[in-house]
Amino acid sequence: MNVLVIGNGGREHALAWKISQSSRVERVFVAPGNAGTASEAENVDISPTDFARLIKFAQQNDVQLTIVGPELPLAKGIVDAFGEAKLRIFGPRQSAAELEGSKVFCKNLLRHADVPTSDYQVFRNADHATTYLKDREDVPVVVKADGLASGKGVFVCATRAEAIEAVKRIGRNKEFGDAGNQIVIEERLDGQEASVLALTDGRTIVTLPPAQDHKRAYDGDTGPNTGGMGAYCPAPLIGEDTLHLIEEQVLVPTVHAMKRGRRPFRGVLYAGLMMTNQGPKVLEYNVRFGDPECQPILMRLQSDLVDLFEATVDGRLDRLEPLRWDPRPAVCVVMASEGYPGSYERGFPIRGLDEAGKVPDVKVFHSGTATVDGQVITNGGRVLAVTALGSTIPNAKLQAYTAVKCIRWKGAWCRKDIADKAMASGA
Ligand code: AMP
Ligand code: GLY
């Protein structure tokens, strides 16, 4: 069969790479893809939100399964549009994608389903939010824009003054446009973060091994928030018992609540969790694979990914054979452009990719790259996601950084401490 992957990041490169390993797959297309996906699959120059052209392409090229990487097309209803055209597509419908598209919807659902999460208040008006902050004790809070804001609409505040400033930016200055029409103010939680991803067809849940992201730009979890500077899988922080607890207290009640609310969830449910002293609490839900978490997770998957996607789309996850995993852990290091997550230049030639690809047990996924005149150049803030397997997490880390050292371009940088947290928790 032919498969279409939608998106252009490291996550989509990993998806295309894994899908092309399936014996049942003939052609893999990626829209729009990057230089990395072009070597694994066929790039198609169509935007992820141009549904009409994507549908036409799928019809004309006998695409039997489409996989959506990023959240924006999901929030805009790509799954509904493909469904109306009788095309099979993996991901939640627009009504279920609200779980990521609206933090207010998500928090209200969590509250009603009794899923552990931080206390919160919702405001439609910046003045009311400011009055609330002034009237309460000066405890740390997190201020969030309701809608999608590419991860930038979240302000983790240490003081009341910072929180009032965040309300101003979201609610008055409208820095995130309509995404700031509602504001969530929630209790700030302490602990380590982890990502637990599960596939669900709306009834059955297949949980993937837990992963951990590194959201801050610089070593020691300092600096501004990013899309994620590295990840590893599995995360020893979450043992088997904790994972069961997360399934029971978080994933199952969420999937049931979505079904009861007539928004059955089909696709990847990604719980961003804070492991607090009182147990795991949900920080947010995403309705897609995480980037970069997807890369080390898929590096370890031995089962056919297309079987898993088809079972999800067709509502028969209950009959799927248990997934097989490489017992070795995987570590992914993101290499970024100078200036990221702020402004950065594009177009620098990247050298050493072949050499890096020869390091044993390493796969160099491309996040923001393009090909110009046969030369791979930088074309994004996050440029590469260098991913390695190893017999232990320290070994996987060593392999990944050995490959990173082979790669050069002007201004390239990465965090040096990816996976150190795993080692601290006893890997
Ligand atoms: P979100 O987009 O809601 O996941 O928020 C992005 C990041 O902000 C999370 O990965 C956390 O690092 C941080 N964050 C969000 N909510 C909270 C919270 N209630 N307490 C502490 N940190 C938070
Ligand atoms: N790695 C975080 C995300 O994909 O949202």
The total count of helices amounts to 15
Shape: globular
* N-C termini distance: 40 Å
Q: Low-confidence spans: pLDDT under 50, at least 5 residues?
A: none
Beta-strand content bin: 25-35%
CATH class of the largest domain: Alpha Beta
Counting helices, strands and paired strands, the structural category is alpha+beta
Computed Rg: 21 Å
Describe the structure.
α6 crosses α7. The protein is globular and about 60 Å long. It has 427 residues and is α+β, with helices and mostly antiparallel strands. Helix content is 33%, strand content 26%. The chain has a 5-stranded parallel beta sheet with strand order 3-2-1-4-5, with helices on both faces. A 5-stranded antiparallel beta sheet has the order 12-15-18-22-19. It folds into 4 domains: 2-93, Rossmann fold (3-Layer(aba) Sandwich); 125-181, ATP-grasp fold, A domain (Dna Ligase, domain 1, 2-Layer Sandwich), CATH 3.30.1490; 192-319, 2-Layer Sandwich (D-amino Acid Aminotransferase, Chain A, domain 1); 330-424, Phosphoribosylglycinamide synthetase, C-terminal domain (Glycinamide Ribonucleotide Synthetase, Chain A, domain 4). The chain has helices spanning 10-19, 35-40, 51-60, 71-75, 78-84, 94-101, 103-112, 126-135, 160-172, 240-260, 294-300, 305-313, 353-357, 393-406, 420-424, and strands at 2-7, 27-32, 42-43, 63-68, 89-90, 120-123, 141-145, 154-157, 183-187, 192-200, 205-207, 212-213, 216-218, 222-225, 230-233, 267-276, 279-286, 330-336, 362-366, 369-372, 375-378, 382-389. It contains 15 helices and 22 strands. It starts with a strand and ends with a helix. Bound molecules: adenosine monophosphate and glycine.
